[in-house]
Records
---
Amino acid sequence: MRLYSGFALLKAGFNGQKNWQSLWRSPEPKPAYDAIIIGAGGHGLGAAYYLAKQHGIRNIAVLEKGWVGGGNTGRNTTIIRSNYLFNESAALYDHAVKLWENLSQTLNYNVMFSQRGVMMLAHNVHDVQVFKRHVHANRCNGVDNEWLSAEQAKVFCPPLNISANMRYPILGAALQRRGGTARHDAVAWGYARAADDLGVDIIENCEVIGIRRDATGAVEAVETSRGLIRTKKLGVSASGHTSVVLGMAGVRLPLESYPLQALVSEPVKPVFPCVVMSNTIHAYISQSDKGELVIGAGTDAYTSYTQRGGLHISSHTLEAICELFPMFRRMRMLRNWGGIVDVTPDRSPIIAKTPVPGLYVNCGWGTGGFKATPGAAHLLAWTMAKDEPHTINAPYTIERFRDGYLIDEAAAAAVAH
Amino acid sequence: MLLIKCPYCGERSELEFSYGGQAHIVRPLIPSDITDEALTEYLYHRDNIKGVQAERWRHLHGCGRFFNAVRDTTTDHFQATYKIGEAQPASGAKSDG
Ligand SMILES: Cc1cc2nc3c(=O)[nH]c(=O)nc-3n(C[C@H](O)[C@H](O)[C@H](O)COP(=O)(O)OP(=O)(O)OC[C@H]3O[C@@H](n4cnc5c(N)ncnc54)[C@H](O)[C@@H]3O)c2cc1C
Ligand SMILES: [Zn+2]
């Protein structure tokens, strides 16, 4: 792998920036691998990278039915934060934020991680109480999060409308300064390039259509649109399609798949310094380095695999954005799209062994798993390599629903971005 | 926005309805008599079908009544709606598009 650097860029400039290598090969699938991951999103590619880098397994394939990063990784609004309420969540999400902080160096690929701060608005007494509780719980867990008055929030984010006669006035905000955004595609591409360099085969246009098990019930192969491929270690990181994939091995899951939407505006000069979220009125906004306002909307009210979403959902979000930031009223939206997110009843993920020997799953990230990409990838790789969970993901089992050990961020935050 | 046919009121906008998830899940008569696995299945596990599924809806901002529907989750096309207590109509093709 040719390393990227300022010097390499300068040198290539003398040749008109030609002769850059492609980031990963496009190999034909081999008949068998020591480990296979289904899903070339950031989570799956990252898991392959950590399996190869930290656990010495080199004969690995990542199978992707579409293209690298074409799932939710390439469709999300890239908000990264770790100020979740419960101890288990703080440990999980902060593990990821710490990996984000060095990811560009680790991968020799600029993932444009920008800790510009994530500010969550409080619009009513309930919000104020919940956010203050979060601030204190986070502090006990060593996770930064601070309470701002409405005036302080306006200083941190000048475009914010804090007038008292709004439909949903702003009473204050919780700010995580270590939170921010990253470039979604770069994360997938960076992991793909680094994994490929360690010998991982990334196989696009290869849909898994069946999982074969041997006489003992253990995984022995996957049937794909490009033929049968053998393996005894299979990791599934298929986000919205996890129920479908694990159904091929007869594993039942507490998941429902919903469309979640986002939009971007036409690009403008830098006007918006941070990330602002409002759970109460369902609006999330930041500005990409390209200049587009990146706006996240809510999920549809019913399950679906359509990868779009109701127009009324996105227009509702735009109404909220216009009220919070009156200066954006005349902005034009350029594109909107949807992704299918896999939601658990407690809005916490599952990173675990399944009842089928050799089959592992990373799912249930729902509306908020981009922020966890490096952490989830690292923990899935660990669980697959050792056949047992890391202490951080030990609570995130499928059986927690049977045993009553829910990690109920759903009740804690109502929305989990 | 979808048009959904309430079996009592006819076609109305999607905004009048609320979604109730997978249909025909039977509540255990005596929950304490069933295993933890069976209770987990009842409470949490869902088919989450990609394709045609039966599901519960409620005409919340209309007549307020519950009913069932057969919908294709790959297109959001409603194949049928029917009253609670009626059998699920046989669905046509697996997907219409
Ligand atoms: C609109 C939107 C906004 C979001 N905003 C945020 C946010 O601001 N912050 C945040 O933290 N999270 C956010 N999320 C959630 C986040 O995008 C996801 O949780 C995360 O990207 C999941 O990553 P992944 O790698 O697991 O899944 P994906 O990137 O979806 O990858 C899964 C891959 O599996 C492939 N696959 C599925 N079935 C098969 C099969 N049978 N065979 C082969 N391949 C298969 C898919 O094609 C896909 O490429 C958002 C999601 C959406 C849709
Ligand atoms: Zn009605």
---
Amino acid sequence: MMETIIEIFSYPFMIRAVIVGVLVSLCAALLGTSLVLKRYSMIGDGLSHVGFAALAVAYVTNLAPLSVAIPVCVLAAFLLLRMNENSKIKGDAATALMCSGALAIGIMAVSLTTGMNTDVCNYMFGSILAMSKSDVTISIILSVVVIILFVAFYPRIFAVTFDETFAKATGTKSDLYNMIIALLTAMTVVLGMRMMGTLLISSLIVFPSLSAMRICKKFITVIITSVLISILCFCAGIYVSYVYSTPTGASIVIANIIVFITFSLIEKMRERVTQL
Amino acid sequence: MSLLSCQNVSFSYEGKDVLSKINFSINQGDYLCMIGENGAGKSTLIKGILNLKKPSSGRILTGEGVKQNEIGYLPQQTQIQKDFPASVYEVVLSGRLNSCGIRPFYNKKDKQDALDKMDKLGILFLKDKCYRELSGGQQQRVLLARALCATKRMILLDEPITGLDPIMSMELYELVKELNQKENITVIMVSHDVRGAIDYASHILHLGKTQLFFGKREDYKNSELGKHFLTGGIEA
Ligand SMILES: Nc1ncnc2c1ncn2[C@@H]1O[C@H](COP(=O)(O)OP(=O)(O)OP(=O)(O)O)[C@@H](O)[C@H]1O
Ligand SMILES: [Mg+2]
């Protein structure tokens, strides 16, 4: 096992993948708890599809992928939140609209020029080979931003997540903090989707915090546990993917599923024990 | 200039007026008790005062420099999800957020205040318990402690004694009275426990789709409406 790990780190592309992956897992888990509790679990899905469309268009028009995808996703995140508030079209319906709409636009853009090739496939299903040097730099910068903002606004994020009405009534600018959460989510999704793939990135947001909620009872411990779970599952996933040549994104998700089931069983057993 | 004044205020949901022609004003240190039947519009007016709901017409003015972050609030119902993992301490502490200003984290004073308020409401021993695993009355006390933490100049309580046992209810009334008299905090309370609540109030606002009465407590007790509503309460 040790030898395999050393071998993994002898490839520059693997080192890049691990750096980006750990950072993205960390950010996704941090934000995931808030998103799940605010009933925004699907926002990751919506954003990743928009991100796919943006990447596809960037690919077709030969623009730098991230410089198109990040602003577009941030915009989409704001739109999704707005729709949640105004609620003429309810949040989940809005997300569904955005998912399929964006996917259609992306596929159209691609088919007009090259057709489905490996690059596009990578966007759909993810690839660890996709990380370039500049991706690593951007990932590091963005994830540092996400972490700093999250820590700096932690008490406010808790207040807005727990009881938005009370927060608003007592003078917390809840709209602003919702925006910040959306902004951070958009950045995380764009960074993560190229490794995890459009179809799997939202699992990175949802699974670790759901698993942590099985066994933790405090907000802060849920967040810390979900970060640990997320990073651990990423490492396990990438290891398995390397050794057995399985797709990275799927391997990571499977690791998360295993943790989720284990924690659910622990929760059930605890309930049994306290009932006795 | 009074602390809070409503000038010909109306509220509507989906175009239908539920409350209209509200005209009253209160000063710092007043204790206003809001009463009225179910659906009279009490909670709606509270939300209006808190800027959570815009009036369809009229104006709500706050004077004497009361800022939104000096107000404590206990909602009638909270849509806190059943599965939310948060400890009692975390919840109560979040009430101190409005004293933080631009400071990112809670300081010693915030934490001490949260502990004091929990002690006052007899929930200190629940500190590390999970909020979702408490009984209804215990949850109500936690939200009360949070509201007290947020209170600097004014507190709005929407049916605070719901779910509390008789002893705790009495303690709550005493606590609010103390807050009102010792710290000169303005209190606005909605209550169906008319006989219990009215004794502590300085002013009464009786609502029923519109403003039926506003004035001093003594005047209300002597008014036809007051006599009717109060004795009706006893007979029922
Ligand atoms: N979200 C809403 N949408 C539509 N109508 C509403 C809404 N909330 C309240 N109403 C209506 O507004 C009126 C006043 O409601 P409100 O909650 O202010 O009453 P209340 O005096 O607090 O009653 P209670 O004693 O039952 O708490 C009611 O007739 C109610 O049907
Ligand atoms: Mg009400």
---
Amino acid sequence: MTQSVVVQVGQCGNQVGCRFWDLALREHAHVNKKGVYDEALSSFFRNVDSRRTTIRVASQPLKRIFCYTQAVLVDMEEGVVNEILQGPLREVFDSTQLLTDVSGSGNNWAVGHLTYGSAYREQIVDKLRRAAEHCDCLQCFFLIHSMGGGTGSGLGTRVLSLLEEEFPDVCRIVTSIYPSAEDDVITSPYNSVLAMRELTEHADCVLPVDNQSLVDIVNKIKHMSQGGKPGSVIKRDSAIISGQGGLSGAEKPFDAMNNIVANLLLNITSSARFEGSLNMDLNEIAMNLVPFPRLHYLVPSLTPLYTLADVNVPTRRLDQMFSDAFSKDHQLIRADPKHSLYLACALMVRGNVQVSDLRRNIERLKPSLPFVSWSQEGWKTGLCSVPPVGHSHSLLALANNTCVKPTFIDLRDRFNKLYRKKAHLHHYLHVEGMEQSCFTDAMASLSSLIEEYHHLDATKGRLMPDAPRLTIAT
Amino acid sequence: MSVVTVQLGQCGNQVGQELFDIICSDAQEGQRKAYSESSRERFFHQSAQGDLVARAVLIDMEPKVINHSMTKAAMSGRWTYGHTSHFGQKQGSGNNWANGYCVHGPRHREAMEELVRREVERCDRLAGIMAMMSVAGGTGSGVGTYVTQCLRDIYPNSFILNHLTWPYGTGEVIVQNYNSVLTLAHLYRLSDAILVHENDTVHKICSQLLNIKHISFSDINRVIAHQLGSVLQPALTPDSHGVYSRNPLGELVSSLACHPEYKLLSVCTIPQMASASIAYSTFSWPGLLKHLRQMLISNTKMEEGIDWQVRPPSVHPAAAERTRSLKGPGFNTSLANLLILRGKDVYSTETDGFQDPALYTSWLSLKEAFNLWKSPVPFNKYEKSATLVSNSQALLRPLDNMVGKAWNMFASRAYVHQYTKFGISEEDFLEGFTSLEQVISSYGELG
Ligand SMILES: Nc1nc2c(ncn2[C@@H]2O[C@H](COP(=O)(O)OP(=O)(O)OP(=O)(O)O)[C@@H](O)[C@H]2O)c(=O)[nH]1
Ligand SMILES: Nc1nc2c(ncn2[C@@H]2O[C@H](COP(=O)(O)OP(=O)(O)OP(=O)(O)O)[C@@H](O)[C@H]2O)c(=O)[nH]1
Ligand SMILES: [Mg+2]
Ligand SMILES: [Mg+2]
């Protein structure tokens, strides 16, 4: 079994990370009825005391936990991390995993990336190495951060390049929370564009998640669970935004949104943790979904989100789950993959689903989905036998699709609006090491990325002739 | 003589487990002592405690599948895998042939060779080695190729058969065509014969013949295992003089893979049906063989949906040289066929339909092109069953598709960086393409 380390940076990164840990514990407690430390648990948790191997069992929520998360928590202010340390999850973190400062990065990428990045470089590397030493086969780093603030976006992407330097062979999968257009951080377009360049150059895969999409999903689920037609009612505790059965009691503002992201992470790692008839290991994600190194943005969609999930599901519902994965309102960024071009698509299925269900649905959906000419069968599939808590099955789709382009164009426009007026620039240029060229280079990187997607888009619908085959002299 | 099986990667380990299971239960059911003993000797040895232990080595670069297969075998209560006959690692090859072939293979060479050597030394006499794997992933394909290469070096005179599972055409691994091309191009140089099952075909058998609604990999693997078992279980060959042939792999290879350009073997079996229906069905040999022959010439891998219009070309006795224009549309030309009949009344069965020169290329004599094995013991609950192993154009189209798709992808250089990272260059790809285009052209010229 391999291990992964989660690196959560900034407020958003830490809050999402904590939801992940809470739900991961809930999931393992649910599967692992005996409550012993097992192989599945070893991929994200390390055993603290080999004599005492108890994990929390759902029915006995207060039983002590004797394992630590494989996590590194970084924030340049104390609030969020302190809250975690006072909360019910405190027992799964030990103080050597934490790194905090007091003042925050003030929504300034440059402060996070350069000032704190240089000041804390050694300490960060040290924490990462320590986390790595606890693993006997480290496979993947999961970085969680927001794009809009200063710490997550600035220091988070600094951590990313440190990971590349220190652990070049370990896969780096980044979950990036993109700001909505109404985001209250005025400088978020700067921070996001500056961070984008780092993501494009140093990540193996990026899973972009858009706060606006999360808000929309949460609202829709809440709306449906309050009233609505009988039969379409969502049971609150099995909804994907629910944290019930977890350790944390009262829900905080972002929790419902963050639970969705946590579920994304649970599903993406499920095959690495549990058995299945078609395993999909973490190193298969980049291998299958990234045809060219820079084009590694994978649009996630989760299903079921809105359907009643805990009834015994007939085939039609199962098929609906597959259809939904391609619809607009199940994407975690605002995008329409069906009307854009697929470079590759992964279907990661959990629960009681067989190959025949996969084949049937791929055959059914394929005609309506445009794939790039050189990969008309760009499907990657995985079957994991353990479903999420409260569900009989679930599906995570990861699409390498040109539908990310509008999000990037939108970001570029918002950046330009500020940059044309030189608004707030001086806050950045004051920071040691920060120059105007950082802005122009980041912009150039984003523009060329958009251009690359654009070129691919242009091939859509055009009949591309097959490459002439090699001829054999006979 | 005994066969040592090497199971590689998820697919190899899952299919292999089903194969041993069927072989073991079939040998137990057969009333004939000689048959059982011969089968046992081939595929199992006895532990000190008297348990049947598969002559198999399990190799994967991750632990989950091996654990699962070993547990399943132990739970059968009939046989087990050797407690120390497996080699697992922690992290799979990530669907990357280059990672398997260039990194994992060389890194673990000694350990893997040692396991096989131990298994070989346990055999009184080695009939050959069978390596089982998929071609689409990274471990079965890449490590499997590497291990085959090592075994070829250690056992230059032994028969090596590769059993390959080809992926669904519509894909489960996006780089499956690259991995397949690299695997096949290498194995073509190393292996004595390459026996292929296509997942699409087997899936269809499950749904249309066995009427399974929710088809799992286990269902698919049982069909593959049934077909393979009916090839590998003991049978009487023309020159075995009434005793079960001792060298299944050697006989198989020498009947079918007579030329280094032609090593691709396909299998079909008749009848196949839901086990509940077997008891209520009766079959006649002429009926079974008539269907099987039409399945061969029309290249249909199951008895449903056979195109009865396809006819062999008429052979003019005067003109030994047959030409394309004489060949009917959709006709599948064979280089060589091996027909295996098992069950009731096999000795009195007519097999003339397969000894028709029109079925074969002109450059082999019928005696070389057609072989027949028989066993009076019914196989795996079927009172009568016939299996045809064929070296024909049957795999030409899927191979051509595979190479074509890989070539299209290669033309845009998509995913190539994932391979160069581990030391496979664009030239290596080109070499692979070149040698498979050669194979395609050779099979194309058969007809
Ligand atoms: N989905 C989600 N978004 C969050 C959360 N917390 C903050 N955000 C978003 O993240 C962006 C702000 O970044 P933060 O993560 O708060 O900032 P930070 O990384 O702590 O950086 P500084 O506070 O500048 O040091 C805004 O777009 C917020 O909407 C959260 O818990 N969940
Ligand atoms: N028939 C059949 N095919 C399988 C089975 N398991 C996997 N496959 C096929 O095998 C291919 C994937 O290769 P795997 O065998 O899973 O890969 P692997 O050899 O373990 O290599 P890595 O996982 O990449 O290290 C796909 O084409 C699957 O359809 C199985 O049990 N039966
Ligand atoms: Mg903050
Ligand atoms: Mg595998």
---
Amino acid sequence: MRPSAARLLNILVPVKRTIDYAVKIRVNPDQKGVDLNNPFDEIAVEEAVRLREKLKDQVKSIKVVTIGPPKSIDTLRTALAMGADSGVHVEIPDSAPSPEPLGIAKALRAVIERQKEGVDLVILGKQAIDDDSSQTGQMLAGLLDWPQATFASKLVVDAAKKEANVTREIDGGLEELKCRLPLIVTTDLRLNEPRYASLPNIMKAKKKPIEKLSASDLGVDLTPRVETLKVTEPPKRVGGGKVENVDELIAKLKEAGITAVKA
Amino acid sequence: MFASRHVVRRVALRQTRRWAHTQPKLQSVTADDVAHFSKILPATSILSTLPPLSTAASELSPFNNDWMNKYHGNSTTVLRPRTTQEVSEIVKHCNERGIGIVPQGGNTGLVGGSVPIQDELVLSLGNMNKVRSFDPVSGILVADAGCILESLSEYLAPHRHIVPLDLGAKGSCQIGGNVSTNAGGLRLLRYGSLHGSVLGLEVVLPDGTILDQLTTLRKDNTGYDLKQLFIGAEGTLGIVTGVSILAAPAPQSTNNVVLALPKFDNVLPLFVEAKKQLSEILSAFEFFDREVYELAVKHGQGRALNEEDIEGAECFVLVETSGGKREHDEEKLNGLLESLMESETPLINTGVLSQSPSQFASLWAIREGLTEAVSKEGKAYKYDISVPLAKFKEVVDATRERLRSKGLLHADAVKHVVGYGHVGDGNLHLNVVAANYTPEIEAALEPFVYELVASYRGSISAEHGIGAMKTHALHYSKGDVSIEWMRRIKTLFDPRGIMNPGKVLE
Ligand SMILES: Cc1cc2nc3c(=O)[nH]c(=O)nc-3n(C[C@H](O)[C@H](O)[C@H](O)COP(=O)(O)OP(=O)(O)OC[C@H]3O[C@@H](n4cnc5c(N)ncnc54)[C@H](O)[C@@H]3O)c2cc1C
């Protein structure tokens, strides 16, 4: 049976460019802070592309969207090289403070409302590795009043029935949810392993359309509302030492002011 | 193509006769020797199956067996000194007593050089693991020989420098072992060999004398450059205890890409093109054939490429760029990739470009994991050879055919004949993966492979060394006069023949 036009899926995948100063790469000799694509977002893009591989023509479009400074366009290009069809870049100036989850969720709602054919499925990372907020997906579901399935480790979509089965990883086991579309899904690490972008796809991605918008085009205010008081590094671990024998160990413990407690 | 083969064979016969000579007789370690060592070293630095210590033999087995579990020694005693002075006193005693010593670093050597042949004493450098100094202006690092390569990288990272050497064994191998094998590895294309980047060495000579050549000078033309003799000496001339090495500034931007090639013949023109377009930012150009790639995937080394990206590929090339500015490097790399993809007669089928640090690491993990994948698959006969680049495939194919013609190419004998290596340096790793090490397979391979290499005027050991594995084959790459002078040098430094006996020279 050919699915009717109304049953075709339009998927939106929000992605974020993150900067992780703590990242330590085994081979990369520069070993310093690098701009990266948020790994959970790559998983989200990968899942959308796999849905298309599975559902073929039933997936009508995969659109990626990012809200961030000019350089964020690289993140969109990567997603396009992985297989997304088009991008939306909500550009904010380099000098602007980074927006908070609520601002992002509102911007995403505005983007979704602009889509003429609507959006049936939003797949996002469960959190970004720079701020670890883990709020955007949930807030977006609230704003849109859509169902949400967070921390997904498996996603099966039935386009004809407009339904999805989502497996979530929870403490001590798995939880399976059946949800109606439109739906918000956030991705866990085990959902999939993102592919490498191949050269032909990277070339093709350069020609895929990216729509550029600003916060005011969307009528949203991205000014942060929460004031960050202080950011501190975790205390430095001091290196341990090796002792030659038990006597030395006891001597060291005494030196450190640790004494035996009599029972 | 084998025209010169019988010439080689004739030379070989003549040489074997000249080589016949007797090793000085060496002594076994006794309980008295252990008692003497106990005066030099703390108890924790001595492992010995001899009384009074009577350590369990199993505790010595990591020191007696090599990384491939191909070479097995029977040492009773392992010493782990912490200072150069301790090394000196141990060596002095062994020299007086005529006890053979095997210096051991991380024991990752691939030619059986790092384990005893009989019951020589093992002198492990693992406890000498301190950085002595680093000068961030000149980039000169001075470290104990037992420092693990990867921990030196970690030490240098906050100073924005890197060790000018990198290899798959980095987590275990030691800088002293690297120097002693003159290890090449993945960065040689960019930073050159250790003969250039090592500025000085501290060596304990076979009579216990400490030779202090630990200079931190870039230039020093004051007569014979003695340290060069110890680079690649594989522990046969003395024990390296300290190394002064020129670290390189860390690149600000790195990228890598794995390219899939329809046929081997394209590797060479691709290398030319990559050098031309990437010029100074090209930092690695590594080749691996399809069969060894499949082994890496099978044994979980790095994330596999997508099916459609490997379709029809006969071999792969990993290209790495390192440079000072991201935008500049990406522009160059993209330029190369575009021209490759859009060419009328494409050299590549396709390729994948890493998009994140984790993908960068993952692509490298495939290449770096090949050695490990091969050893997980079976027993490996490893031939680390230098031949003209254009002959890489010919060597692999000829070896496979040879084994086939001997009826040895099946699941119970030889499972795979694969090739990979450092194209940029003309260095091929020919690996024969067998179910078991057997005399038939060895006889089919040797001297066949060595003669093949000699017919191209190649080297039978490009970077792994001679060790115990290739002493008999040295003459395929070195003439009589060279070997004679190597022998004289050995005798000059080590008249009693205690330093790593049976290695390098027969
Ligand atoms: C997975 C893997 C990948 C590898 N990749 C490469 C590669 O890309 N390029 C390459 O060149 N090699 C490679 N090798 C082999 C290489 O020779 C060794 O990994 C390394 O250089 C040896 O260091 P080590 O500390 O383990 O030395 P060992 O194996 O302990 O010793 C090697 C030789 O040096 C001598 N020696 C060690 N320390 C000293 C010392 N302080 N003083 C005097 N003599 C000493 C030993 O007696 C022995 O003859 C690889 C090995 C493995 C297992």
